[in-house]
Amino acid sequence: MAPHDPIPSPDEPDASDASALVDFEVDLTAQEVLRRAQVMEALGPDWNPVEVLLGEEAAYDLLYSGLDAQQQRLYDDLVAAGVLPPRGDGRAAA
Q1: Is residue 92 packed enough to be buried (19+ CB in 10 Å), middle (13-18) or exposed (0-12)?
Q2: Burial 13-42 (b: 16+ CB within 10 A, else e)
Q3: DSSP H or E stretch at residue 39
Q4: Within 10 Å of residue 85's Cβ, how many Cβ atoms?
Q5: What is the pLDDT of residues 10-33, one digit of tens each?
Q6: Distances (CA, A) of 49 to 2, 42, 57, 59
Q7: What is the Cα–Cα distance from 55 to 68, expressed in whole angstroms?
């Protein structure tokens, strides 16, 4: 089956524009609005972002609490390297 708009050969006089780039735009605004609406619907009316963030902070405090000396040194090295964000006074919670 032949294409509707065949690609011109280099021998044809109009072939000079064959390799030119063309703008290609897709407007995803409507799709993004729908996706966000679906996310908010899935979260439900009781979702509280402040409570979620506080819960995450508490989980990180628990995760990095009670480190022994070697673990604390490793934690400090990871913070210094920028792998982990600094927390509180720069030390893991006791």
Answers
A1: buried
A2: eeeeeeeeeeeeeeeeeeeeeeeeeeeeee
A3: helix 29-43
A4: 8
A5: 666 555 556 788 888 888 899 999
A6: 56, 14, 12, 15
A7: 24
Neighbours of 64 (CB within 10 A): 19
**Is pTM, for the whole model, over 0.70?**
no
Contact 90, 79 (CB under 8 A): yes
CA–CA separation, 80 and 58 (whole Å): 22
Sign for the CA dihedral angle at 39, 42, 40, 84 comes to negative
Instruction: Tally the residues of the chain.
Output: 94
